[in-house]
Amino acid sequence: MPVDATQPYDDQNIFARILRGEIPSKTVYEDEHTLAFHDIAPWSPTHLLVIPKGAYVSWDDFSARASDAEIAGFVRAVGHVARAAGLVEPGYRLLANTGAHSHQEVPHLHVHILAGRPLGPMLAQNDGRS
Ligand code: 5GP
Question: Is 0.85 topped by the overall pTM?
Answer without folding.
Answer: yes
